[in-house]
Design goal:
Length: 139
């Protein structure tokens, strides 16, 4: 599978007093990228919720390399890195004009909305397997 990309425009509300994007805003951009990645693959949070399944971020490691500014048009990339049971690990980047500004490794887990951990839905496991197969074929 190819890398998923999602455009994000920076608005005044995303910045701090210095004119740079406030660090917490990047979390929203990464979330939107993950959501649109799944949506483009036919996985919708509303449908999962109807099945009693949601995602929770278990961990996130973020590296800030350069700042984004008001009016910038950024690209959020998302790629599956690993999958196991209830856990999905994603590699994400935020770029401006092809230059990496921020990188993140995000671990999400499937949970039951009634409580407890859930196995990742088959559709997501299939998506991850397809991505893995394509990487192996490209190597």
């Amino acid at each position: 599978m190819t890398l998923h990309t999602f455009p994000v425009r920076i608005y005044y509300e995303d910045t701090d007093f210095s004119g740079n994007v406030y660090h917490a805003a990047y979390l929203k951009f990464f979330e939107r990228g993950r959501t649109e990645f799944l949506r483009d693959e036919g996985v919708h949070h509303s449908e999962l919720a109807g099945q009693g399944i949601a995602f929770a971020v278990r961990g996130m490691d973020i590296q800030f390399d350069a700042a984004a500014h008001i009016d910038d048009l950024l690209t959020v990339t998302t790629e599956i890195e690993a999958i196991s049971g209830a856990k999905l690990t994603l590699a994400q980047t935020i770029l401006r004009d092809g230059k990496v500004l921020t990188r993140a490794k995000v671990v999400v887990v499937a949970i039951k909305t009634a409580g407890g951990v859930a196995r990742l839905p088959q559709q997501i496991r299939d998506l991850a397997q397809s991505a893995s197969d394509k990487k192996k074929g490209a190597a």
